[in-house]
Amino acid sequence: MIRSVIAGTGGYLPARSLSNDELAAEYNLDTSDAWISERTGIRRRHMAAPGETTADMGAAACREALARAGADASEVDAIILATATPDSAFPSTATRVQEKLGIRQGFSFDISAACTGFIYALGVADSMIRTGACRSALVVGAEAFTRILDWSDRGTCVLFGDGAGAVLLRATEVAGEGTDSGILSTHLHSDGRHGDILQVEGGLVRMAGREVFRHAVSKLASAVDEALKANGLDQTDVQWLVPHQANARIIDAMGRKLGLPPERVVVTVDRHANTSAASIPLALADATRDGRIGAGDLVLMEAIGGGLTWGAALARF
Ligand code: ACO
Q1: Active site: which residues (predicted)?
Q2: Ligand 1: centre distance to CA 123 (Å)
Q3: 2-173 and 182-316 share one CATH topology?
Q4: Burial class (CB in 10 A: 0-12, 13-18, 19+), 97
Q5: Ligand 1 atom at minimum distance from 210 CA
Q6: How far is 165 from 142, CA to CA, in rounded Å?
Q7: What is the value of ipTM here, to two decimals?
Q8: Which of 19, 30, 40 gets mutated to test ligand 1 (max ligand atoms within 8 A of its CB)?
């Protein structure tokens, strides 16, 4: 039978990084480093340069994922890219990435699931690989999120950053159903009744932060339980938690729920802020580059975002 194995990870962050104080000064915000960092854990964020597109960042992340997998672009037959900040309604950002990578074969398309986008893209790519629709897929989360922020709303504009992350999935023949390698399962959910608590309206992000917080911990906890149960595992089997990076308090709550020591939870929110669909693959790239996550490790990923959408994925590296 066929499984999707994560062959390589990559990430890209724009060169410009602003501290909370620098952001406040640049956008004349009535806020403070203490307010932002105590409530969210955010200390800095990267911002795309003028003219730097979501596709530019996505392509850069893909190049690293390919290089770290020892793969050539000619082996890629699918690009599935999650973003809330596409460069245009069409062409999709995924086809723009395909062009930048010089890939002429296969297919590419975007996925819209806000901050849960990477988990959705991973789920779709994994299903397509398992059914033979493609053999090798770049799964990308890429965001120029600071372009949709309302700089007069201090409750949202301090929370987000720009960047991209990618993984290369490869179809790999494994012995049987019980084989414990690659993407083990993905679990996707949405509930449109809560669409208005986190949305883009008139081109800008609007969020009822407390409402989002209230949904986050319970929905993430149930997705994580579902993922573990589906694989006959319990929380003691998890070696790494790679959560969506929205808020350090939500991340800490999930780490505590799983009984994981803080050093087993990958955190980038302090340096990247919330990069929406890019946050999980950026965190994966971080923790594989420095050797924390290695071959054989069981990694649990989870995310919640506008929609509401939420989900979890389990992968054996
Ligand atoms: N600096 C200073 N004061 C601020 C700021 C700021 N940047 N933002 C809001 N305030 C003020 C408000 O004006 C309000 O003042 P008031 O009491 O005088 O009216 C006060 O702080 C409290 O505002 P709340 O919005 O109620 O602040 P809260 O304590 O809920 O914290 C936060 C806001 C950090 C966004 C929190 O609700 C949260 O973490 N929510 C989770 C949502 C999240 O992480 N979203 C990320 C995107 S969604 C996702 O990726 C899952």
Answers
A1: 115, 244, 274
A2: 31
A3: yes
A4: buried
A5: 37
A6: 6
A7: 0.93
A8: 40
